[in-house]
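Hi R.,

Here's the chain you asked about this morning:
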Amino acid sequence: MKNRRLAIILIAALPLLLLALTIGATLLLFQGGLAPYRLPGEAATPIDTDSELLARGRYVAAIGNCAGCHTARGGTPLAGGRPFVTPWGTIYSSNLTPDPEAGLGNWPLPRFQHAMRHGVAPDGVLYPAFPYANFALLDDADIRALFAWLRSVPPSDHIPPPNRLEAPAGWRWTQVVWRMLHYRPQNPDFGADMPAEWRRGRYLVDGLGHCGMCHGRRGAMGSLPASGYLAGGRIPDSGWYAPPLDGQQLARYEVDELAGYLRTGMSAHGSAYGPMGEVIYQSLQYLTMEDARAMATFLKSVPPRTRPRPPREAVAQPPAAADAAGLYEKHCSGCHGIDGEGGKDAAWPPLTHAVAITAPDPVNTVRMILYGGMAPTTPGNPQPYSMPPFVEALDADEVAAIANYVRGRFGGQPPLITAETVRTLHGITAH
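And the predicted structure, written out as C-alpha coordinates:
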Protein backbone atom coordinates (compact mmCIF):
# COMPACT_ATOMS: atom_id res chain seq x y z
CA MET A 1 0.00 0.00 0.00
CA LYS A 2 2.82 2.39 0.97
CA ASN A 3 4.68 1.71 -2.32
CA ARG A 4 1.49 2.29 -4.29
CA ARG A 5 0.90 5.63 -2.55
CA LEU A 6 4.48 6.68 -3.29
CA ALA A 7 4.05 5.76 -6.94
CA ILE A 8 0.90 7.88 -7.19
CA ILE A 9 2.72 10.87 -5.65
CA LEU A 10 5.62 10.46 -8.07
CA ILE A 11 3.29 10.24 -11.06
CA ALA A 12 1.39 13.34 -9.90
CA ALA A 13 4.64 15.26 -9.43
CA LEU A 14 6.07 14.22 -12.80
CA PRO A 15 4.59 17.17 -14.77
CA LEU A 16 6.05 19.63 -12.25
CA LEU A 17 9.41 17.91 -12.44
CA LEU A 18 9.38 18.06 -16.23
CA LEU A 19 8.44 21.74 -16.11
CA ALA A 20 11.33 22.47 -13.71
CA LEU A 21 13.75 20.58 -15.96
CA THR A 22 12.47 22.47 -19.00
CA ILE A 23 12.90 25.82 -17.26
CA GLY A 24 16.40 24.94 -16.14
CA ALA A 25 17.39 23.67 -19.58
CA THR A 26 16.01 26.82 -21.21
CA LEU A 27 17.98 29.04 -18.86
CA LEU A 28 21.18 27.16 -19.50
CA LEU A 29 20.72 26.64 -23.22
CA PHE A 30 19.37 29.98 -24.44
CA GLN A 31 20.18 32.65 -21.93
CA GLY A 32 23.63 32.04 -20.53
CA GLY A 33 22.54 30.20 -17.42
CA LEU A 34 21.75 32.22 -14.31
CA ALA A 35 24.51 34.79 -14.91
CA PRO A 36 22.22 37.44 -16.48
CA TYR A 37 20.09 37.46 -13.33
CA ARG A 38 23.04 38.09 -10.97
CA LEU A 39 23.99 41.72 -10.37
CA PRO A 40 27.72 42.56 -10.47
CA GLY A 41 29.63 43.99 -7.51
CA GLU A 42 28.97 47.38 -6.03
CA ALA A 43 32.43 48.97 -6.42
CA ALA A 44 32.11 52.74 -6.87
CA THR A 45 33.02 54.24 -10.26
CA PRO A 46 34.77 57.63 -10.24
CA ILE A 47 33.17 60.33 -12.38
CA ASP A 48 34.95 60.68 -15.72
CA THR A 49 35.36 64.19 -17.11
CA ASP A 50 37.38 63.41 -20.26
CA SER A 51 35.98 65.73 -22.97
CA GLU A 52 36.39 63.24 -25.82
CA LEU A 53 34.65 60.51 -23.82
CA LEU A 54 31.78 62.84 -22.94
CA ALA A 55 31.39 63.92 -26.57
CA ARG A 56 31.20 60.30 -27.62
CA GLY A 57 28.66 59.61 -24.88
CA ARG A 58 26.52 62.54 -26.02
CA TYR A 59 26.50 61.10 -29.55
CA VAL A 60 25.64 57.60 -28.30
CA ALA A 61 22.78 59.02 -26.21
CA ALA A 62 21.45 60.99 -29.17
CA ILE A 63 21.49 58.11 -31.65
CA GLY A 64 20.08 55.77 -29.00
CA ASN A 65 17.32 58.37 -28.39
CA CYS A 66 17.66 58.07 -24.61
CA ALA A 67 15.90 61.40 -24.03
CA GLY A 68 13.00 60.40 -26.27
CA CYS A 69 11.95 57.61 -23.94
CA HIS A 70 13.26 58.89 -20.62
CA THR A 71 11.74 62.38 -20.73
CA ALA A 72 8.09 62.97 -19.86
CA ARG A 73 6.24 65.49 -21.99
CA GLY A 74 7.10 68.89 -20.49
CA GLY A 75 9.37 67.24 -17.93
CA THR A 76 13.05 67.49 -17.03
CA PRO A 77 15.28 65.89 -19.69
CA LEU A 78 16.20 62.29 -18.84
CA ALA A 79 14.33 62.40 -15.51
CA GLY A 80 11.97 59.64 -16.63
CA GLY A 81 8.23 59.36 -16.24
CA ARG A 82 7.18 59.01 -19.88
CA PRO A 83 4.25 56.57 -19.98
CA PHE A 84 4.25 53.59 -22.35
CA VAL A 85 0.82 52.03 -22.74
CA THR A 86 0.78 48.27 -23.28
CA PRO A 87 -2.05 45.72 -23.44
CA TRP A 88 -1.21 44.87 -19.81
CA GLY A 89 -1.08 48.39 -18.40
CA THR A 90 1.27 51.37 -18.32
CA ILE A 91 5.04 51.35 -17.84
CA TYR A 92 6.89 54.55 -16.88
CA SER A 93 10.47 55.18 -17.95
CA SER A 94 13.15 55.55 -15.28
CA ASN A 95 15.26 58.52 -14.20
CA LEU A 96 18.69 58.48 -15.92
CA THR A 97 20.11 61.60 -14.30
CA PRO A 98 22.93 61.33 -11.70
CA ASP A 99 20.67 61.99 -8.72
CA PRO A 100 21.86 59.54 -6.02
CA GLU A 101 18.36 58.57 -4.89
CA ALA A 102 16.06 58.91 -7.90
CA GLY A 103 18.59 58.29 -10.67
CA LEU A 104 21.91 56.64 -11.47
CA GLY A 105 24.10 58.63 -9.07
CA ASN A 106 25.03 55.61 -6.92
CA TRP A 107 25.32 53.14 -9.81
CA PRO A 108 28.77 51.71 -10.57
CA LEU A 109 29.68 51.19 -14.22
CA PRO A 110 29.41 47.35 -14.05
CA ARG A 111 25.80 47.63 -12.83
CA PHE A 112 24.94 49.99 -15.71
CA GLN A 113 26.61 47.66 -18.23
CA HIS A 114 24.67 44.73 -16.81
CA ALA A 115 21.33 46.55 -17.02
CA MET A 116 22.02 47.64 -20.60
CA ARG A 117 22.99 44.18 -21.78
CA HIS A 118 20.79 41.91 -19.67
CA GLY A 119 17.86 44.05 -18.56
CA VAL A 120 18.38 43.33 -14.86
CA ALA A 121 18.62 46.14 -12.27
CA PRO A 122 18.59 46.32 -8.46
CA ASP A 123 14.78 46.41 -8.39
CA GLY A 124 14.48 43.30 -10.53
CA VAL A 125 14.15 42.15 -14.12
CA LEU A 126 13.34 45.03 -16.48
CA TYR A 127 10.35 44.94 -18.80
CA PRO A 128 11.12 44.52 -22.51
CA ALA A 129 9.83 48.05 -23.19
CA PHE A 130 13.49 48.77 -22.41
CA PRO A 131 15.40 47.44 -25.47
CA TYR A 132 18.08 45.45 -23.62
CA ALA A 133 18.00 42.87 -26.42
CA ASN A 134 19.32 45.57 -28.76
CA PHE A 135 21.70 47.20 -26.31
CA ALA A 136 23.31 43.80 -25.68
CA LEU A 137 25.11 44.40 -29.00
CA LEU A 138 26.81 47.61 -27.81
CA ASP A 139 30.53 47.55 -27.24
CA ASP A 140 32.16 48.39 -23.93
CA ALA A 141 33.50 51.72 -25.16
CA ASP A 142 30.08 53.05 -26.14
CA ILE A 143 28.46 51.92 -22.89
CA ARG A 144 31.24 53.50 -20.85
CA ALA A 145 30.95 56.76 -22.82
CA LEU A 146 27.17 56.81 -22.40
CA PHE A 147 27.48 56.21 -18.66
CA ALA A 148 30.04 59.00 -18.33
CA TRP A 149 27.83 61.45 -20.22
CA LEU A 150 24.69 60.56 -18.23
CA ARG A 151 26.61 61.31 -15.04
CA SER A 152 27.51 64.75 -16.43
CA VAL A 153 23.93 65.99 -16.99
CA PRO A 154 22.10 68.03 -14.33
CA PRO A 155 20.63 65.74 -11.64
CA SER A 156 16.90 65.60 -10.99
CA ASP A 157 15.21 64.15 -7.93
CA HIS A 158 12.05 63.38 -9.91
CA ILE A 159 10.67 59.94 -9.07
CA PRO A 160 8.55 58.55 -11.92
CA PRO A 161 5.14 57.09 -11.07
CA PRO A 162 5.03 53.38 -10.29
CA ASN A 163 4.11 51.08 -13.17
CA ARG A 164 0.42 50.27 -13.40
CA LEU A 165 0.27 46.74 -14.75
CA GLU A 166 -2.31 44.03 -14.36
CA ALA A 167 -1.35 40.78 -12.66
CA PRO A 168 0.60 38.71 -13.44
CA ALA A 169 2.51 41.19 -15.66
CA GLY A 170 2.93 43.47 -12.64
CA TRP A 171 4.97 40.84 -10.82
CA ARG A 172 8.56 41.31 -12.00
CA TRP A 173 9.52 37.68 -11.47
CA THR A 174 7.12 36.75 -14.28
CA GLN A 175 9.56 38.44 -16.66
CA VAL A 176 11.92 35.51 -16.11
CA VAL A 177 9.21 33.17 -17.41
CA TRP A 178 8.49 35.55 -20.31
CA ARG A 179 12.16 35.56 -21.25
CA MET A 180 12.38 31.80 -21.21
CA LEU A 181 9.41 31.57 -23.54
CA HIS A 182 10.00 34.52 -25.87
CA TYR A 183 13.47 36.07 -25.58
CA ARG A 184 16.35 34.80 -27.69
CA PRO A 185 19.47 37.02 -27.60
CA GLN A 186 20.78 38.21 -30.95
CA ASN A 187 23.99 36.82 -32.36
CA PRO A 188 26.63 39.55 -31.95
CA ASP A 189 28.84 37.89 -34.58
CA PHE A 190 26.18 37.92 -37.32
CA GLY A 191 27.69 39.40 -40.48
CA ALA A 192 31.26 39.30 -39.17
CA ASP A 193 32.51 38.62 -42.71
CA MET A 194 30.62 41.58 -44.23
CA PRO A 195 32.23 44.95 -45.15
CA ALA A 196 32.90 47.43 -42.34
CA GLU A 197 30.17 49.86 -43.48
CA TRP A 198 27.55 47.08 -43.40
CA ARG A 199 28.68 45.97 -39.94
CA ARG A 200 28.49 49.54 -38.65
CA GLY A 201 25.00 49.84 -40.12
CA ARG A 202 23.89 46.66 -38.41
CA TYR A 203 25.33 47.93 -35.12
CA LEU A 204 23.31 51.14 -35.44
CA VAL A 205 20.06 49.55 -36.69
CA ASP A 206 19.94 46.41 -34.54
CA GLY A 207 21.89 47.74 -31.57
CA LEU A 208 22.09 51.40 -30.70
CA GLY A 209 19.13 52.60 -32.78
CA HIS A 210 16.89 49.63 -31.78
CA CYS A 211 14.79 50.19 -34.93
CA GLY A 212 13.01 46.86 -34.52
CA MET A 213 11.22 48.09 -31.40
CA CYS A 214 8.88 50.04 -33.70
CA HIS A 215 9.46 48.45 -37.09
CA GLY A 216 9.36 44.82 -35.92
CA ARG A 217 6.19 42.74 -36.15
CA ARG A 218 5.24 41.52 -32.69
CA GLY A 219 4.28 37.98 -31.80
CA ALA A 220 2.95 36.25 -28.70
CA MET A 221 2.83 38.35 -25.53
CA GLY A 222 4.52 41.33 -27.17
CA SER A 223 7.60 39.41 -28.27
CA LEU A 224 9.68 40.31 -31.32
CA PRO A 225 10.24 36.95 -33.04
CA ALA A 226 12.90 36.47 -35.71
CA SER A 227 10.15 36.00 -38.29
CA GLY A 228 8.96 39.56 -37.58
CA TYR A 229 12.39 41.17 -37.91
CA LEU A 230 11.88 44.70 -39.32
CA ALA A 231 8.68 43.39 -40.94
CA GLY A 232 6.52 46.37 -39.95
CA GLY A 233 3.39 46.63 -37.85
CA ARG A 234 1.32 48.92 -35.66
CA ILE A 235 3.33 50.47 -32.82
CA PRO A 236 1.65 49.35 -29.58
CA ASP A 237 2.10 52.61 -27.66
CA SER A 238 1.35 55.21 -30.35
CA GLY A 239 -1.15 53.47 -32.62
CA TRP A 240 0.79 54.54 -35.73
CA TYR A 241 1.88 52.01 -38.34
CA ALA A 242 5.63 51.51 -38.81
CA PRO A 243 6.40 50.17 -42.31
CA PRO A 244 8.77 47.29 -43.04
CA LEU A 245 12.44 48.20 -43.37
CA ASP A 246 13.95 46.01 -46.07
CA GLY A 247 15.56 46.18 -49.49
CA GLN A 248 12.24 45.76 -51.28
CA GLN A 249 10.43 48.47 -49.33
CA LEU A 250 13.39 50.84 -49.69
CA ALA A 251 14.29 49.99 -53.30
CA ARG A 252 13.20 53.42 -54.56
CA TYR A 253 15.87 55.08 -52.41
CA GLU A 254 19.50 55.35 -53.38
CA VAL A 255 21.85 54.92 -50.41
CA ASP A 256 22.70 58.62 -50.16
CA GLU A 257 19.04 59.55 -50.59
CA LEU A 258 17.97 57.25 -47.74
CA ALA A 259 20.83 58.54 -45.59
CA GLY A 260 19.64 62.08 -46.23
CA TYR A 261 16.08 61.16 -45.25
CA LEU A 262 17.32 59.74 -41.94
CA ARG A 263 19.06 63.03 -41.16
CA THR A 264 16.46 65.50 -42.46
CA GLY A 265 13.08 63.75 -42.51
CA MET A 266 12.63 64.78 -46.17
CA SER A 267 12.99 63.03 -49.50
CA ALA A 268 11.48 63.00 -52.98
CA HIS A 269 9.45 59.97 -51.86
CA GLY A 270 7.82 61.51 -48.80
CA SER A 271 8.39 63.12 -45.42
CA ALA A 272 8.59 61.79 -41.87
CA TYR A 273 5.56 62.35 -39.64
CA GLY A 274 4.32 60.97 -36.35
CA PRO A 275 6.74 58.82 -34.34
CA MET A 276 9.31 58.71 -37.17
CA GLY A 277 9.35 62.50 -37.33
CA GLU A 278 9.90 62.56 -33.58
CA VAL A 279 12.78 60.08 -33.81
CA ILE A 280 14.48 62.10 -36.56
CA TYR A 281 14.04 65.34 -34.62
CA GLN A 282 15.29 63.96 -31.31
CA SER A 283 17.83 61.46 -32.56
CA LEU A 284 18.67 60.68 -36.18
CA GLN A 285 19.31 64.24 -37.32
CA TYR A 286 22.53 64.03 -35.29
CA LEU A 287 23.89 61.10 -37.31
CA THR A 288 27.16 61.70 -39.07
CA MET A 289 26.83 61.22 -42.82
CA GLU A 290 29.06 58.15 -42.54
CA ASP A 291 26.78 56.55 -39.97
CA ALA A 292 23.65 57.51 -41.93
CA ARG A 293 25.12 55.87 -45.03
CA ALA A 294 26.00 52.78 -43.00
CA MET A 295 22.42 52.47 -41.76
CA ALA A 296 21.06 52.94 -45.28
CA THR A 297 23.47 50.35 -46.69
CA PHE A 298 22.45 47.79 -44.09
CA LEU A 299 18.71 48.44 -44.38
CA LYS A 300 18.77 48.04 -48.15
CA SER A 301 20.37 44.63 -47.68
CA VAL A 302 17.59 43.28 -45.40
CA PRO A 303 15.49 40.61 -47.15
CA PRO A 304 11.72 41.24 -47.11
CA ARG A 305 9.39 39.34 -44.78
CA THR A 306 5.86 38.30 -45.63
CA ARG A 307 3.57 41.30 -45.29
CA PRO A 308 1.14 41.18 -42.35
CA ARG A 309 -2.60 41.06 -42.90
CA PRO A 310 -4.59 44.27 -42.36
CA PRO A 311 -5.71 44.84 -38.75
CA ARG A 312 -9.14 43.69 -37.66
CA GLU A 313 -10.83 47.08 -38.02
CA ALA A 314 -9.69 47.32 -41.66
CA VAL A 315 -11.90 44.51 -42.97
CA ALA A 316 -13.06 45.22 -46.54
CA GLN A 317 -16.21 47.32 -46.61
CA PRO A 318 -18.00 49.38 -49.28
CA PRO A 319 -16.43 52.85 -49.63
CA ALA A 320 -18.05 55.76 -47.86
CA ALA A 321 -20.88 57.44 -49.73
CA ALA A 322 -19.29 60.76 -50.67
CA ASP A 323 -17.79 62.45 -53.72
CA ALA A 324 -14.24 61.28 -53.06
CA ALA A 325 -12.63 62.79 -56.17
CA GLY A 326 -14.34 66.13 -55.56
CA LEU A 327 -13.31 66.13 -51.89
CA TYR A 328 -9.72 65.36 -52.84
CA GLU A 329 -9.61 68.11 -55.43
CA LYS A 330 -11.08 70.63 -52.99
CA HIS A 331 -9.05 69.83 -49.88
CA CYS A 332 -5.87 68.06 -51.01
CA SER A 333 -4.83 68.80 -54.60
CA GLY A 334 -3.61 72.33 -53.87
CA CYS A 335 -0.55 70.87 -52.11
CA HIS A 336 -0.35 67.25 -53.23
CA GLY A 337 -1.32 67.89 -56.86
CA ILE A 338 -4.18 66.53 -58.95
CA ASP A 339 -2.06 63.49 -59.80
CA GLY A 340 -0.53 63.14 -56.32
CA GLU A 341 2.87 64.32 -57.50
CA GLY A 342 3.46 66.78 -54.64
CA GLY A 343 5.22 70.11 -55.11
CA LYS A 344 7.74 72.72 -53.97
CA ASP A 345 10.78 70.44 -54.30
CA ALA A 346 9.24 67.72 -52.10
CA ALA A 347 8.27 70.23 -49.38
CA TRP A 348 4.71 69.20 -50.19
CA PRO A 349 5.06 65.42 -50.15
CA PRO A 350 3.97 63.28 -53.11
CA LEU A 351 1.23 60.74 -52.46
CA THR A 352 2.20 58.39 -55.28
CA HIS A 353 3.64 55.30 -53.60
CA ALA A 354 3.98 57.11 -50.24
CA VAL A 355 4.29 54.68 -47.32
CA ALA A 356 1.08 55.83 -45.61
CA ILE A 357 -0.79 55.29 -48.88
CA THR A 358 0.59 51.86 -49.79
CA ALA A 359 0.68 50.34 -46.29
CA PRO A 360 -1.70 47.46 -45.57
CA ASP A 361 -2.80 49.28 -42.41
CA PRO A 362 -4.71 52.52 -43.20
CA VAL A 363 -4.21 54.13 -39.79
CA ASN A 364 -1.50 56.62 -40.86
CA THR A 365 -3.60 57.91 -43.76
CA VAL A 366 -6.62 58.46 -41.51
CA ARG A 367 -4.58 60.11 -38.76
CA MET A 368 -2.90 62.52 -41.17
CA ILE A 369 -6.24 63.58 -42.68
CA LEU A 370 -7.79 64.06 -39.26
CA TYR A 371 -4.98 65.70 -37.34
CA GLY A 372 -2.41 66.83 -39.91
CA GLY A 373 1.27 66.91 -39.11
CA MET A 374 4.62 68.50 -39.74
CA ALA A 375 7.95 67.08 -40.76
CA PRO A 376 10.75 67.56 -38.19
CA THR A 377 12.76 70.76 -38.12
CA THR A 378 16.35 69.83 -38.96
CA PRO A 379 19.41 71.63 -40.39
CA GLY A 380 18.60 70.05 -43.75
CA ASN A 381 14.95 71.17 -43.54
CA PRO A 382 14.89 74.23 -41.27
CA GLN A 383 11.40 75.45 -42.26
CA PRO A 384 9.21 72.40 -42.89
CA TYR A 385 5.71 72.82 -44.28
CA SER A 386 2.84 71.48 -42.24
CA MET A 387 -0.34 69.67 -43.21
CA PRO A 388 -3.44 71.20 -41.61
CA PRO A 389 -5.91 69.06 -39.62
CA PHE A 390 -9.33 68.36 -41.15
CA VAL A 391 -11.00 66.89 -38.08
CA GLU A 392 -13.24 69.98 -37.79
CA ALA A 393 -13.75 70.46 -41.53
CA LEU A 394 -14.75 66.92 -42.58
CA ASP A 395 -17.13 64.38 -41.11
CA ALA A 396 -16.28 60.70 -40.71
CA ASP A 397 -17.82 59.74 -44.10
CA GLU A 398 -15.74 62.36 -45.89
CA VAL A 399 -12.54 61.34 -44.12
CA ALA A 400 -13.17 57.72 -45.11
CA ALA A 401 -13.94 58.74 -48.70
CA ILE A 402 -10.71 60.73 -49.11
CA ALA A 403 -8.63 58.02 -47.41
CA ASN A 404 -10.03 55.32 -49.69
CA TYR A 405 -9.56 57.56 -52.73
CA VAL A 406 -5.90 58.38 -52.16
CA ARG A 407 -5.02 54.83 -51.09
CA GLY A 408 -6.78 53.38 -54.10
CA ARG A 409 -5.62 55.85 -56.75
CA PHE A 410 -2.05 56.40 -55.60
CA GLY A 411 -1.30 53.20 -53.68
CA GLY A 412 -3.36 50.46 -55.29
CA GLN A 413 -5.08 49.61 -51.98
CA PRO A 414 -8.68 48.34 -51.76
CA PRO A 415 -11.37 50.54 -50.15
CA LEU A 416 -11.14 49.21 -46.62
CA ILE A 417 -12.07 52.32 -44.66
CA THR A 418 -15.57 53.23 -43.53
CA ALA A 419 -16.90 56.01 -41.35
CA GLU A 420 -17.12 53.46 -38.55
CA THR A 421 -13.45 52.62 -39.08
CA VAL A 422 -12.59 56.29 -38.63
CA ARG A 423 -14.64 56.52 -35.44
CA THR A 424 -13.20 53.30 -34.05
CA LEU A 425 -9.60 54.28 -34.77
CA HIS A 426 -9.86 57.75 -33.33
CA GLY A 427 -12.97 58.06 -31.24
CA ILE A 428 -14.48 60.88 -33.22
CA THR A 429 -18.22 61.40 -33.71
CA ALA A 430 -19.86 62.14 -37.00
CA HIS A 431 -20.81 65.80 -37.46
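The chain has three domains: 28-182, 196-299, 312-426.

Let me know if you need anything else.
M.
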